[in-house]
Amino acid sequence: MADWITAGAAGTEPIWEAGWPPLPPGACLWLTGLSGAGKTTLAQALMQRLRDRGAPVEVLDGDIIRQNLTKGLGFSKADRDENIRRIGFVAQLLARNGAIVIVSAISPYREIRDEVRAKIGDPFIEIYVNAPLATCESRDVKGLYQKARAGEIRGFTGIDDPYEAPLNPEVECRTDQETLEESLERVLGLLRSRGFPV
Amino acid sequence: MADWITAGAAGTEPIWEAGWPPLPPGACLWLTGLSGAGKTTLAQALMQRLRDRGAPVEVLDGDIIRQNLTKGLGFSKADRDENIRRIGFVAQLLARNGAIVIVSAISPYREIRDEVRAKIGDPFIEIYVNAPLATCESRDVKGLYQKARAGEIRGFTGIDDPYEAPLNPEVECRTDQETLEESLERVLGLLRSRGFPV
Questions:
Q1: Is A138 a catalytic residue?
Q2: Could you report the predicted ipTM of this complex, rounded to two decimals?
């Protein structure tokens, strides 16, 4: 804290006198896509790169949020929508206070994604993490597709629940056709075009 | 955003090259107390003062959080605890990203307040907004005490549900004995002692 207090923005007067330094702009990187499309992998790579640049970063992972904010919600459309609405609420709070929020959640329904986009406004950046269902299913990192096919999980996105692809995402990453580095570079390029020092 | 990009922290190199500027320290001002004790009034005054100093501020009001994050939760001990836990989760995210979070919630149970304190750590500042029950009841801003006394509301804190006062709050404001300015000054004094430019 000492550094921050003594190092004035103009290099002359202490911040103590000047109040808080100007808030850097925040952003909400919203990663949507099927289970297994590569959201978590891309989210982690983005987090690492942004942290390396000194950015305040938070990853809001769908699964973790379900433990902390939306315990008790299921996977009906209404519950999925409420889950996404709450993630959006927290993402908005963080982004408008200068943080870079990376949301990693299937978020299968277009309408609720667009509702969150409308609330958050310009800082909202939709990133479609896109791999064909067959690719995601063959990866089956968590073994969930197998369970869904066996009928052990009901309402699984892509199997017996719809995924509504974004119509105009700011970035689309075809994780079956490009490397992680290439996907990462796509997102960073978009951030650079908006003035972020990444 | 242009200002932020061009104005380097050291006054020489653009932040674009240097990455993000250092993150100012955050804080969580946790206002606890009976309904009618003056939490909202103090929270608003604090918010205004901090905003005037350029701080990134968020007020997490118990009632508003119940609409956005904890819809469906009631007022049993378990539900109250889950409500507080979620507020604490969001407050932690904000505080560790440099925001000053003002929580305004009855938060009647000591154990869950201490759990949140342990999670948030040093940035957690407990402010006991203290007025005797009789004073709060005579104010009865929202008409809730009357309803509780009439049995129309069950489990109302202070009437038929306990309020466990903080044992070692960082600040105590006796709102029945001091002016709003005096209460405000107490909190600002604590913040100043921690190096915040208020």
A1: no
A2: 0.89
- A11 interaction partners in chain B (CB closer than 8 Å): 10-11
d(CA B151, CA B159): 10
For A33, left (φ over 0), alpha (ψ -120 to 50), or beta? left
**A5 touches B at CB < 8 Å:** yes
CA distance linking residue A156 with residue A165, whole number of Å: 15
Cβ of A20 within 8 Å of Cβ of B197? The answer is yes
Q: Cα(B37)–Cα(A183) distance, rounded to whole angstroms?
A: 53
Whether residue A143 lies within 8 A of chain B, CB to CB, comes out as: no
Q: Does A4 touch chain B (CB under 8 A)?
A: yes
Reduced to 3 states, what is the DSSP secondary structure of residue A152? coil
Which residue's structure tokens are 């038929």? Answer: B160
Point out the catalytic residue in the list A104, A107, A138, A183: A107
CB of B7 closer than 8 Å to CB of B16? no
**pLDDT, averaged across chain B:** 91
List the one residue out of A120, A113, A105 whose CA is nearest residue A26: A120
Residue A69 forms contact with B (CB below 8 Å): yes
What the block records as the tokens of B38 is 């003056």
Average pLDDT of the residues in A131-145: 95
Is the pLDDT at A161 greater than 70? The verdict is yes
Per-residue pLDDT tens for A32-75?
999 999 999 999 999 999 999 999 999 999 888 888 887 888 88
Q: Which of B35, B104, B107, B183 is catalytic?
A: B107
